[in-house]
Amino acid sequence: MSSERHLTSFVAILACAALASCAQVEDPCKTKSRVVADDKYCDKYWECDNGQSVQYDCPNGLVFAGKHRGVTEGCDYPWRSNYCEYPKVQINPPIGTEHCDWLYGIFGHETSCTRYWTCWNGTATEQLCIGGLLYNENAHSCDWPENVDGCQKHPLCNEDPNGNVPLGKSCNRYWQCQGGYPRLQRCPAMLVFDRRSLRCVVPPTEECDVPTTTAPPPEEEENRPRVQHQSKRPSQGFSEQSRPPPRN
Ligand SMILES: *[C@@H]1O[C@H](CO)[C@@H](O)[C@H](O)[C@H]1NC(C)=O
Question: Residue ranges under compositional bias (Polar residues) (predicted)?
Answer without folding.
Answer: 233-242
